[in-house]
Design a protein that fits this description.
CATH superfamily of the largest domain: Spore Coat Polysaccharide Biosynthesis Protein SpsA, Chain A
Number of strands: 31
Number of helices: 12
Helix content: 10-25%
Structural class: alpha/beta
CATH topology of the largest domain: Spore Coat Polysaccharide Biosynthesis Protein SpsA, Chain A
Strand content: 35-45%
Largest sheet: 6 strands, antiparallel
Number of domains: 3
Strand order of the largest sheet: 20-21-22-29-24-27
Distance between the termini: 56 Å
Length: 456
């Protein structure tokens, strides 16, 4: 069996910690077995290792998430990177073609697609393993995993059974996010919450692409990715199949997609600098800012603060934040990258259109920024911590705390951290956007081969 983890979305329901650059699965708000803060993606990857599925797993994601995945899981996790976000069917199709044409996986191989962020026990992934023999036994076109509902939720999709057997469920149809009244009826029909797991023979997707006249070679499909329909796997594939079976998972399962559900699984009521009075009940503070947050006499409240903003919400109202943010457009103020992180400290636009942007940038020891240049901006770096090797127009010099480095527009530059390195970057120019970034080399070994070392 091959495993495809889908990692996408922007997670606006967990604003202000999540944004267009940092989805909910990367927020380090859970606690691992060692008592350290961990993200959802770190938790799931550890669970795959626990049941020995990690060696057969790949992650399908977008360019914007590659740095965060490698930062949290390491450089050796196999990734399928979409050229653009299109929906779950294109993402799964690209992964299927990769398995078929690059890894030479048999068309008879079972592929299981999972979301990257379920909050479950290890037993959930052992249940995933059972989908392979189930499909072989029943000769079904698709296998799913459902959870017996604990209440009539309007937040989840439902798997409606045709017949319940001793080992599995024959599926009749699906019901997407019903009203609570309709959910009551579904519970009476023994419907299951849909966990978003799909298992199928690789041939199912490959044949569909052939029928559509789309390539089944990986590089060719990458080049024609924009021709794939922008549609979910549910609508494009699942609803057109006739023989679908499901396994019932009896263990713990939860979607941590809102502040209300997420705080239920946090090991502490305070993350970051904060104080909660003794008469406050069921109140949580999640604070990424370097200033304290205090809560007095509050009940059922979440206070979340990050460089992107501050949210104060009653817990059951927290899912509505996505509606409130419609039309609100702001560049991400904090991003994790493969080399570390950066935080936007200040920005301004002046009367002549000239812009200023100030960042605090942290690079982990041994990591490096790519060798790059910018067309529209000048930069000044003030090193405030650590030591590194700085390269400017093919010359490498050592730098340390206290050094000031000036980088004019179109000058090629990069840096490697010898020890943990921090600097303040002040950008000036017009149209200060992340897209004004042209890479010459990404890896330090290539930079060393190309440049000469200058000793101070």
């Amino acid at each position: 069996m091959k495993i495809v983890l889908l990692s996408g979305g922007s997670g606006k329901r967990l604003w202000p910690l999540s944004n267009d650059a940092r989805s909910k699965q990367f927020l380090k708000v859970l606690e691992n077995r060692e008592g350290l803060n961990a993200s959802m993606v770190e938790r799931v990857w550890t669970q795959l290792k626990n049941v020995k599925l990690d060696q057969s797993a790949i992650i399908a994601t977008s360019y914007s998430q590659v740095d965060m995945i490698t930062n949290q899981l390491g450089q050796n996790v196999p990734l399928i990177v979409e050229p653009e976000r299109r929906d779950t069917f294109p993402a799964i199709a690209l992964a299927a073609v990769y398995l078929y044409s690059v890894q030479n996986v048999s068309l008879e191989e079972i592929v299981s697609v999972l979301p990257v962020d379920p909050f479950v026990d290890d037993a959930f992934f052992r249940k995933v393993k059972e989908l392979e023999p189930l499909l072989e036994k029943t000769n079904a076109e698709l296998g799913l995993i459902g959870v017996k509902p604990t209440y009539p939720s309007s937040k989840y999709g439902y798997i409606v059974p045709l017949k319940t057997k001793s080992t599995h469920v024959d599926v009749s149809h699906f019901q997407e996010k019903p009203s609570e009244e309709k959910a009551e009826d579904l519970l009476a029909m023994n419907a299951l919450w849909n966990t978003g797991v799909f298992a199928f023979k690789l041939d199912t997707v490959i044949e569909l692409l052939v029928e559509k006249g789309l390539p089944i070679k990986y590089e060719e499909l990458l080049n024609r990715y924009d021709e794939l329909p922008k549609i979910s796997f549910d609508y494009e594939v699942v609803e057109k199949l006739h023989h679908i079976v499901a396994l019932t998972y009896q263990g713990y399962w939860k979607d941590l997609g809102t502040w209300n559900t997420l705080t239920e699984e946090m090991a502490t009521n305070i993350l970051g600098k904060g104080m909660i009075s003794s008469d406050s009940k069921n109140t949580h503070i999640v604070n990424e800012l370097d200033i304290p947050v205090a809560a007095l006499g509050l009940k059922d409240i979440v206070i979340a603060a990050s460089p992107d903003g501050i949210l104060v919400t009653e817990k059951t109202a927290s899912p509505r934040i996505k509606e409130l943010l419609k039309g609100f457009d702001q560049r991400p103020m904090f991003e994790e990258r493969r080399w570390g992180w950066y935080q936007v400290i200040d920005s301004a636009t002046y009367g002549d259109g000239q812009e200023m942007l100030t960042k605090r940038i942290s690079i982990s020891a041994g990591k490096n920024l790519s060798y790059q240049y910018h067309e529209s901006r000048n930069e000044v770096w003030t090193v405030v911590k650590g030591e590194g090797d700085f390269v400017l127009d093919d010359k490498i010099i050592p730098v340390r705390a206290g050094d000031v480095l000036r980088i004019p527009a179109r000058a090629k530059h990069g840096v490697k951290a010898v020890s943990d390195l921090e600097f303040i970057e002040v950008q000036t120019g017009f149209n200060l956007v992340e897209e004004d970034n042209y890479r010459v080399f990404e890896f330090w070994e290539d930079i060393i081969d190309h440049c000469s070392v200058v000793r101070k």
